[in-house]
Amino acid sequence: MRPAGQTALLEAARQEFAERGFGSASIRNIAARAGMSLSAMYHYYSGKQELLHALLDEGMDRYFASVAAELDAVGGHDAAPAERLGAVVAATTRFRAEHAARSNILLLEERSLEAERLERYGRRQAEATNLFRDPIEAGIASGEFHTPYPDEARRGVIAMCNAVAQWYRPDGPLTLGSLVDRHVELALTLVEYRPQRSFAARGR
Amino acid sequence: MRPAGQTALLEAARQEFAERGFGSASIRNIAARAGMSLSAMYHYYSGKQELLHALLDEGMDRYFASVAAELDAVGGHDAAPAERLGAVVAATTRFRAEHAARSNILLLEERSLEAERLERYGRRQAEATNLFRDPIEAGIASGEFHTPYPDEARRGVIAMCNAVAQWYRPDGPLTLGSLVDRHVELALTLVEYRPQRSFAARGR
DNA sequence: CCAACCTTCACGAACGATCGTTAAGTTAGA
DNA sequence: TCTAACTTAACGATCGTTCGTGAAGGTTGG
């Protein structure tokens, strides 16, 4: 279990970074939001950079956990490519919507990382990309996905999911459940998913 | 014609903002990059905020000009919806790739704008969204686009195009021309474009 | 049992550096 | 002589970081 002070600090830093961006964020404000003095913050984190690093790490952990849970729910690596891609798209869309601040930091503040820490983060980002790449390539190989451009389709799907963090508002007209369903459908449309051995139209 | 000093300043500010973000950018660095003193900068722009504002305005002007030119090339508002959407996607993809720094500032630094200037920028952003919305709705109305989710498809197409500014490198394996073509195809796939009165397959 | 000690957690004060901005003055061309 | 273009110098504020201090609480040695 993480100490309460540390959790409060991460939450405060998340808000501050999400609102103003890393460069404009003040660690004095972060400490104040967390209800402690500036120096107390240095007891938990050795500086502004490490605060960002911890935030990105924690965000990545949560994201991978979300996707893994959704993947397990459809049967893990043994599921059909369309099921797996759908699970990844659903988990990603939901994560971007439910953790907008977290996601925006993950997506926008990469450039604020120092060189050494950026290297590690880049590796995790590549893993995240593979979450989409694997089922798409499997679908191409099995003949269920017909897109001639798997790489660009993958990037398109990822971009569509990621953008959710920037525009979706829970109090808007669109239910999160509906959005997730639509994104799954759109992703399957983009990779030109057509079930084999059947001429029946896919359900709407 | 803009004074040379002003142009150099905008270029320097663009680089600095793109590399470090607005918050971390230093106007001293910007002035130095432009080859002038800090105070000389104040002769042209009244401060950091106005520098960002000018940059966003100039970027938007260029973007709209690019799209307008591409739209004109296919026949303007009289062209078929698929042609129009293709033109907008092509122009946007090309713009994001050829003006990556410009685009990233347009896409990421909105939050650094003060309230008053943000209002004006929001209006221009809405106009940009309409560039995609109009042909998509026209395609739905004419029966050539069959997507059940025009709004989410539109957001997906826009996100796909915008993401180009973050990943595309001109020295990479993919030609810009190829990327543009593929994005146009993917966009038409996403809105489920099927030409009317013909069973012939669309060209690949 | 108790005194000495260490670690954890927190504080206020101050460091030097850099920030955005302004003032006052100089130069060069119309 | 007027003005645009540009200079150096300095302003106060805020930045991230460091230092020294000390209260609280558990552990250890005699």
Instruction: Show the largest interface.
Output: A-B, 32 and 32 residues
- Gyration radius of chain A (Cα, Å) is 19 Å
Mean pLDDT of chain A: 94
Total beta-strand segments of chain A: 0
Which descriptor suits the 3D outline of chain A?
Answer: elongated
Total helices of chain A: the number is 9
Distance between the termini of chain A: 45 Å
Uncertain parts of chain A: none
Elements of chain A, N to C (H/E): HHHHHHHHH
Structural class of chain A: mainly alpha
Looking at how many chains there are and whether they match, the oligomeric state comes to: homodimer
Biggest β-sheet of chain A: count, sense, barrel? Answer: none
- What is the helix content of chain A? over 70%
**Residue share in β-strands of chain A:** under 5%
Overview of the molecule:
The structure is a homodimer of 204-residue chains. Chain A has nine helices and no strands. Chain A has 204 residues and is mainly alpha-helical. In chain A, helix 5 runs antiparallel to helix 7 and helix 8 runs antiparallel to helix 9. The radius of gyration of chain A is 19 Å and the shape is elongated. The first copy, chain A, starts with a helix and ends in a 14-residue tail after the last helix. Chains A and B meet through helix 8 and helix 9 of A and helix 8 and helix 9 of B. The structure holds a DNA duplex (30 and 30 nucleotides).
